Amino acid sequence: MTAPQQTLTKARILLIIGGGIAAYKCLDLIRRLRERGASVRCVMTKAAQEFITPLSVGALSADHVFTELFDRQDEHDVGHIRLSREADLLVVAPGTADLMAKLANGHANDLASTVLIATDKPVLIAPAMNPRMWEHPATQRNLATLKEDGVNFVGPNRGEMAESGEAGEGRMAEPMEIVAAVEALTGNHEKPLAGRKVIVTSGPTHEIIDPVRYIANRSSGKQGHAIAAALARLGASVHLVSGPVSIPDPHGVTTTHVETARQMREAVEASLPADAGVFVAAVADWRPAVEISEKIKKKPGEGAPTLELTENPDILAGIGHHKKRPALVIGFAAETQDLFKNARTKLNKKGADFIVANDVSHDSGVGPGGVMGGDRNSVVIVGHEGHDEWPEMSKEEVAERLAQLIADRLGPTQ
Ligand SMILES: Cc1cc2nc3c(=O)[nH]c(=O)nc-3n(C[C@H](O)[C@H](O)[C@H](O)COP(=O)(O)O)c2cc1C
After folding, report:
1. One-character DSSP codes across 192-256
2. In terms of CB atoms within 10 Å, which of 60, 207, 273, 305 comes out highest?
3. Residue 154 CA from chain centroid, whole number
């Protein structure tokens, strides 16, 4: 597998892990930061140790884990002042309501809060808490104070909480979103796509039947959004055209929200010229031939209405044969049968350079949730010179590898 870009070489990160359910995501965050060349040293609050162990944190960070303010050994070796001095950036994840309150008010009664007060380095907080805790006036007051003090924030996102039935704003940013924020703040990374413009489409489209009904599909936008974010991390100027999704806009990307296939095509064409186009959206092939302006009423004895469908514009083929065609055009093909054959046919018909084919059948065996809506993907990259089968991996990893492939194909900016 291609190693991730060394975007964080020499970056020294002090990760302060607070006591929230999202602490488990820090294990992945440590891995992601380190594989990009960062060194990661961790401080865990007492509460954090109720959720994950210093043993796993130490194993992943390959360093001693600091937990106590009054630890003779730690004070002798490093000390809370040196802990912050020897870092380029302090990251607090999960940023609990408690840690935010302490920092906003200058408390220093444990190692985490003392290090945060003792530092003159930039601080990045990834808040994570129940939506009611996040919305509480005290937390919002602390947020405003911290922002005024120059503290940086990533997230929180809107979505489902770990507690069953809870949803809203307060979910911690995903590890790769935190990595992107760290990269933006430490800024010593290579940007092979700097100066390049890439258009990405993502999500489903909704095709209107009447004011309350539409035809849709199961696309979540996770893969397309991850690709847009990965391209932005490599320095591209990314224009994401997104259908209706329930995930947040990616960091550092310009996003246009559309609903229908025709609106998506319009937004994509308006964004030309571009160096590359990645067409990930699951665009509806058909739409109702007539859009009815009043809600269709159920009439006793009349049975079900008949929906006449008409073909939607083929956005990928349109761009693949456009007079302003980007140098690199990549399409996605969601197939439930004859994956390979259909991808090859699509490649030629649509004027694409690559088709990323994925098996979206229910028995594809990919992760919980399947490919559509799930977090994992297994793809075959079909090009004119041959094909490359990638093993099953997370959608973020697919995004990283694809962004790297795009950077390699486009080559250095002239
Ligand atoms: C099961 C459980 C989950 C919790 N999740 C969160 C959370 O996501 N965010 C938060 O701010 N506090 C959460 N708390 C409360 C904190 O653990 C508590 O405020 C603690 O004192 C925070 O300590 P720290 O800020 O030093 O890590 C949770 C508590 C429990 C028991």
Report:
1. TTTT-EEEEEESB--EEEETTEEE-----SHHHHHHHHHHHHTT-EEEEEE-S-SSPPPTT-EEE
2. 207
3. 12
369 to 37, 220, 361, 363, 375: CA distances (angstroms): 32, 11, 11, 11, 8
Cβ atoms 129, 148 nearer than 8 A: no
- Delineate the domains of the chain, giving CATH numbers in brackets: 12-186 (3.40.50.1950), 197-410 (3.40.50.10300)
How many of the other CB atoms lie within 10 Å of CB of 286? 14
pTM of the model: 0.63
Q: Whose CA is nearest to atom 18 of ligand 1?
A: 19
Local mean pLDDT, 10-residue blocks, the chain (414 residues): 74 95 96 94 96 95 86 58 83 98 95 92 95 96 93 87 73 91 77 93 97 94 93 92 90 92 98 98 96 88 91 97 97 82 91 90 54 74 91 87 95 79
Whose alpha carbon is nearest atom 28 of ligand 1? 20
